[in-house]
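Q: Given only this backbone (296 positions), what sequence would you predict?
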């Protein structure tokens, strides 16, 4: 155990009574959080910081099964609209579309009937090219083939759109490029998979990578919801169209802290895209690579 993990474990145990009290208050008001987690790649070669070993993935899932209702994004949105049940919920999502997820993670989720939304970048699914963030670090990891995605969809995995080219939408002002990333990504994947693509996840997903116009476009063309990834939770009464997600740390202690009323997550400011102001705009403090797996 590293010093960091040791200190986080101490923090977890020391703050448990306060968090248990917070949990009881929120449960009484049916305001328990609807948590959405993000994974990228589950494999045992540890090729990148956004790769999680398969044994750890299964361990995290087992722990989540014991403490949460594991639900779809649609059920997450219902709970945000109508109030939580007696337990908080967690929804599992994956970003990018790594072929290696078909070895352990996806078969495990299917076997255990854990709902999952799998966000895929259209261009990489079509061409088989490595993702730009992998190419940048000289790592050419295989992406999911269309046949794999069709098979996953047949098994009940919801396929979502993760833009067309994995661009930073926060930097796009040109309407045509934005249309391609949000709308063409949806329509292209619908054509090749012959299924509706109902959810969109921003590449990178930090505050600086979000775009108010992209939110509006997504709503206009019929997405049911849009996911960011700067670490927030969702609560009943929030806007159900914008689902805040947490990128999962590559250990157990981050997961345990973040999903159990951690004050550091409870106060995360929402990106308010409907109003022209307020909320959080471009703070410039997010990591422009895929979400790091072990930040605090
Ligand atoms: Zn991504």
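A: Predicted residues:
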């Amino acid at each position: 155990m590293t010093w960091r993990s040791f200190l986080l474990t101490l923090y977890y145990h020391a703050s448990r009574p306060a968090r248990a009290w917070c949990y009881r208050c929120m449960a009484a008001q049916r305001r328990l959080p609807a948590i959405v987690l993000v994974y990228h790649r589950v494999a045992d070669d540890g090729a990148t910081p956004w790769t999680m070993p398969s044994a750890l993935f299964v361990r995290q899932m087992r722990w989540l099964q014991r403490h949460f209702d594991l639900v779809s994004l649609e059920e997450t949105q219902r709970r945000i609209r109508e109030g939580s049940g007696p337990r908080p919920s967690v929804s599992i999502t994956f970003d990018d579309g790594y072929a290696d997820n078909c070895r352990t993670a996806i078969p495990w989720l299917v076997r255990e009937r854990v709902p999952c939304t799998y966000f895929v970048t259209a261009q990489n699914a079509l061409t088989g090219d490595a993702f730009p963030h992998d190419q940048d670090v000289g790592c050419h990891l295989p992406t999911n083939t269309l046949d794999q995605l069709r098979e996953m969809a047949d098994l009940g995995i919801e396929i979502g759109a993760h833009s067309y080219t994995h661009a930073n939408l926060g930097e796009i002002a040109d309407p045509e490029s934005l249309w391609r990333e949000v709308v063409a990504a949806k329509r292209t994947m619908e054509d090749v998979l012959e299924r509706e693509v109902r959810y969109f996840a921003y590449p990178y997903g930090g505050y600086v990578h979000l775009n108010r116009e992209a939110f509006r476009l997504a709503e206009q063309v019929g997405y049911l919801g849009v996911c960011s990834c700067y670490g927030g939770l969702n609560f009943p009464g929030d806007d159900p169209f914008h689902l805040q997600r947490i990128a999962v740390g590559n250990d157990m202690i981050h997961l345990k802290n973040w999903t159990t009323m951690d004050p550091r997550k409870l106060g995360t400011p929402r990106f308010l895209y409907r109003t022209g102001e307020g909320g959080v705009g471009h703070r410039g403090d997010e990591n422009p690579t895929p979400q790091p797996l072990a930040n605090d």
